[in-house]
Every structure is written in C-alpha cells, then in structure tokens.
Amino acid sequence: MKITARACSNIALIKYWGKRDTHLNLPAVGSISVTLNDLHTTTTVDFNGQYNNDQLFLNGRRSGPEETTRVSAFLDRIRRRAGIKKYALVESENNFPTAAGLASSASAFAALSLAAAKAARLEISESELSVLARLGSGSAARSLFGGFVEMKQGEKDDGSDSFAFQLYPKDYWDLRLLIAVTSTDKKKIGSTDGMKLSKETSPYYNQWVASSHGDLTDMRDALKSRDFQKLGELSELSCLKMHALALSANPGLLYWNGATVEGIHRIRALRRQGIEVYFTIDAGPQLKAICEPDSVAEARAALEQIPGVKNVISTALGDDAEILEGNK
Ligand code: PMV
User: Which atom of ligand 1 is closest in space to residue 139's alpha carbon?
Assistant: First the structure.
C-alpha cells in the first residue's frame, strides 16, 4: 500500500478568494488556472501498519504538529472511505524552496490526494479525486490537471459538484510564466484566514462574488480564441479585484511589498514599449509575469533589474498529476 505521486503547482488567472463553506472548503467563486511545469511536489504515502499515528516528513525533515494534524485529518477521510485503519508514513519533497513563499499547498495536496487514494486502493473518478484534493486546499483541486484548468464553484451543500477539470491541455497554447521572488518570509495571514476576514468585513465581498461569473465567461472566451491580450487583461483585472477586496477587509490585508508594486509598474511599462506581458499575484508578495515565448527574455531582464527581486523562476505549462511508483 505504498505509492509515489507527483503534482505540479498552479497559478490562477481568474482568482478564487472566499469560501461558501469553510468546513468543506467550498469556494464562493469558480476559478481558472494554469499548471506550472517546473514547480512540483513528489509525495510517497505508505499505509504500512507499523505506526501508532501518521508520520509526516517534508523535504526530509519531520513536520511540526500543525502540519501533521492537517495531513492526518485529510488521511482520515481517505481511511474512512476505503475502510482501512492503518496509519501512514508520508514523505513529501518540493523541487522549489518552500520557504520562498511560493504556493506549495496546491501541489502538495494534489500529490497527497493521488498517492493516498491509490495507496488505499480507492476506486475513484477524476472529479471525485479533485473533490478530495479540494478538501485539503481549494487550489489543490486544480493541480491534478495539466494545462488550462477550471474549478467549479458548485451549488450542492455536500460539495460533490465543486471540482476542477481540464479546459485545454498544455500543448493548446505555449504560455510562459516568470515568477519574481521578492521575499522569502513566511506570510503572516494565510489564505483561509484572509478569505474569512474578507467575507466577514469587506463591503465589497458580495460584488466580488457577483462579478466573478462574468470574468470566468470572458476568460473561457479568451482561451477559446487564444486571444493573449484579452487573457492578460482579464488576469490583471481578477488579480487586482482580489487584492482590492483583501485591502478593503478590516483590518486591511496587504500582501505586497515595494518590489511587488514596482513590478506592476515595470510590466505595464513593458507593454507601452510593445512587449506583451501581464502580471498576476497570489496572497503573497511574489509577482508572476505571463507572456508568450518570444517575450520571455525581455520580461526576465526587466524583472531581474527591480530592486528587491531576489531571483526569477521561469516555467512553461505542466501536465496532469501522475503516479511515479507503485501500482498505476
Ligand atoms: O487554495 P488556497 O487556500 O491556498 O487559496 C488559494 C488562493 C489564491 O492563491 C490567492 C488564489 C487561487 O485561486 O489560487
């Protein structure tokens, strides 16, 4: 009952922010993301009956109680469903620095869901697996699929219709992402707490939820027609709306630092020079530039020149999560 699986990270172009149910981790809005080839998590799950509780190792080091409890609660769902009682040894490695404040929960819970479900011999469809991953982290539901991915907000109270699916494989459109790392500090307010505060205190929360449907429709159209300008403009719009919502919480949530803001200005300056590049930013200070292959070199050079940018990671789009070892 030992399986190793790998899943790539992802970045949302149309953002998820806000939960309609915290317990089941149900999103208040749908989202659309791209899966990133060069940032991934590899996880081995071994239900071997040797332990009295679950053991979790991240990048070779035993995890603290908070992380272990979160993973253990997730494994309990799988054990209940599979009718097994054995505890597991879970070993997980990121190929990118976790401390760099880059999203790791998406690739981590996607790899864990796939490895644990297969190790527990669960007979499970792709969408059911995505539902399972969502219970670990909302964005993890998207990381099971490669290329361009949509996450459905769903309507049902039990969350069975809130899962992700692939819109187009990575070969459909060769997009590139550049991640400008501007801080390696751990963020102070995680996405779950940030979403809760935004929902409870922002006067703009209901407008955010209402306007998300139009953004999703427009992004589906941009993808269908491979309209890069439209894709880029919509990505910036959704990102800035999400951050405006976070800023309007009480107390306001500001995830950016000075280099993040400078990055926004530089990217818009590049566009004025005729270089088509757009930005998006998650709940942290790293700036992500979206471009096509012929703009990568110029965009990279511009980002590297920003004071406060520590390094720039370049990536193309990635594939579905996969099993590396064990019974496929
Ligand atoms: O899945 P979570 O709880 O880490 O939330 C993800 C939130 C954002 O990264 C800011 C947006 C998104 O859609 O990925």
Answer: 1
